[in-house]
């Protein structure tokens, strides 16, 4: 009789364990159904945007894809800025200001920004002197290029300038066919005559060739108005500190979706 009691107790214990396991499996299944699942290679969960995406809303899909790839691979996207160096001393150029802003917004794990500024550079010198090879060595994923438009004005000629830009970008694309190119004009000049036509030609060229174009002139006072002199140095086409900040703010709004506060 005692043996049968023990067997019955053992069966009751086994039944309790099985019922408990079924219950907890059911509970776990319900919880997993409502808990967000981690996306592979990402720092955020399904249904929750990555923290950086709110800053990237103005960027083209091609750049956003590169940032997503950087997050997945843990290898930062390389943004290279190429521009004319100031001829008069300023506290910080727009390129430096933008680099600092991008670092604080995205972090260096997502975006690595390098700035190259050249004094008295033209597109023709850039090619003939082999200076463009410095940019090749950087292997950019995204190129933000202010192609020395003002320095070329009246020296190289706009048709030659556009051809030179084609040559420069083509050589970069030979290295990286997925390169994203963003073009922008040089700084405005008070009461300029022929130069604004070069700016329009650059915009048309950008659209025809599928390049992003940033017209930061819209953030400045009209170049025909004396108001613009507040932001320009004595050297024609040279921003003062206020002009550098204004230019940088325009670009920061584009790259980080933050108010321009101009």
3D architecture notes:
The protein is of the alpha/beta class. It has one domain (54-256): SGNH hydrolase (Rossmann fold). Helix content is 47%, strand content 10%. It has a five-stranded parallel β-sheet with strand order 2-1-3-4-5, sandwiched between helices. α3 runs parallel beside α9 (241-256).
How many separate helices? Answer: 9
CATH-assigned fold name = Rossmann fold
- Could you name the CATH class? Alpha Beta
The rounded distance between the terminal residues' Cα atoms is 94 Å
Question: Which structural category do the helix and sheet elements fall into?
Answer: alpha/beta
Helix/strand order, N-terminal first: HHEHEHHEHHEHEH
Largest sheet: 5 strands, parallel
Q: Determine the CATH superfamily.
A: SGNH hydrolase
**Overall number of strands:** 5
What radius of gyration results from the CA coordinates? 28 Å
Unreliable runs = 8-13, 21-48
Mean pLDDT, to the nearest integer, reads 86
Strand content: 5-15%
Give the fraction of residues assigned to helices: 40-55%
Shape: globular
Counting structural domains, the number is 1
Main sheet: strand order: 2-1-3-4-5
The assembly state of the depicted protein chains is single chain
Query: If classified by CATH, what would the architecture be?
Result: 3-Layer(aba) Sandwich
């Amino acid at each position: 009789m005692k043996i049968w009691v023990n067997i019955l107790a053992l069966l009751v214990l086994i039944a309790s364990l099985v019922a408990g396991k079924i219950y907890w499996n059911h509970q776990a299944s319900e919880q997993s159904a409502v808990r967000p699942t981690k996306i592979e290679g990402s720092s955020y969960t399904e249904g929750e945007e990555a923290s950086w995406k709110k800053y990237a809303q103005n960027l083209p899909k091609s750049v956003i894809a590169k940032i997503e790839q950087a997050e997945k691979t843990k290898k930062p996207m390389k943004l290279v800025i190429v521009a004319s160096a100031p001829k008069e001393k300023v506290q910080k150029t727009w390129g430096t200001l933008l680099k600092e802003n991008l670092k604080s917004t995205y972090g260096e794990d997502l975006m690595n920004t390098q700035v190259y500024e050249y004094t008295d550079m033209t597109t023709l010198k850039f090619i003939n002197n082999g200076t463009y090879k410095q940019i090749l060595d950087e292997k950019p994923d995204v190129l933000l290029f202010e192609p020395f438009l003002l320095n070329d004005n009246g020296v190289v000629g706009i048709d030659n300038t556009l051809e030179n830009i084609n040559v420069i970008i083509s050589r970069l694309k030979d290295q990286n066919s997925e390169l994203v190119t963003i073009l922008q004009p040089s700084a405005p000049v008070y009461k300029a005559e022929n130069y604004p036509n070069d700016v329009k030609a650059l915009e048309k060229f950008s659209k025809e060739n599928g390049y992003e174009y940033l017209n930061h002139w819209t953030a400045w006072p009209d170049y025909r108005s004396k108001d613009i002199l507040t932001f320009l140095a004595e050297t024609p086409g040279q921003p003062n500190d206020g002009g550098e900040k204004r230019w940088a703010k325009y670009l920061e709004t584009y790259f980080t979706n933050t108010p321009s506060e101009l």
